[in-house]
Fold this sequence. Notes:
The chain is mainly beta. The protein is built from two helices and nine strands, in the order H-H-E-E-E-E-E-E-E-E-E. The longest helix is centred in the N-terminal third of the chain and has 23 residues, at about 1-25.
Amino acid sequence: MYGDRFSFRSALAGGLIAALVMVTLPVLGSVGDAIRAGLTTKAGEQTVLKGNVDSQNLKLVNTGNGQAASFVTESGRAPFKVNRAKKVKKLNADKVDGYSATQLAPRAAFIANDDIPDGADYALGTLIEAPAPGILLMSAGVDAYNEDSDIFLRCLLRVDTEYVVGSEMIADIGGSTGTNLEEDCTTSGAVVVGAGDHSVDFEIEDADSNTVFVDASVWVIWVPFNGIGDVPSATAGSTVTP
């Protein structure tokens, strides 16, 4: 009699403990087990939810402060994939090929001076930030005249104090044989740069004491490679050095 009572109490206590464990601990299911809401279900094979409906097969709603879903993978692996190229409305991308939107948008810088010193060499400069490797496209010019001498005015571009290849221009200004006393010394160039701040200088040289300058200006545009930051391959006769 006592033995039977003891066995019944032991069985009842064991059942209660097992029930508590099942409620409080996550359930690690196996292949073929149903998904348990609020608990952990683990399977070693792919789980497929397939249906023929006019709306979504699966809808997750979170009425709290968190997200409706979370996709977690090992480092270096995509958290999910799609099988269509169709645009999904309101699905915003934080980065494109590792670059943020601020690193892909073109940037520009401009400076002008309409009262530069006469009769001497002069440099007009500006700064531009390249948020990622890309190309600087530059253009600059100055108006000058010399009523007493026929001189050859030299102008060129420098980026970070380095001469921009192909930007050196020579303008024949002034003199009795000149058909236009006011001439332009204009130039342009392009150079590959890395991310960071860069100085762009427009240098005017070989002026004499009778040279009069009217104004000068420089503009610069930074453009990312291919729109996504990829450095292009060098073609014959060119050099790419980001």
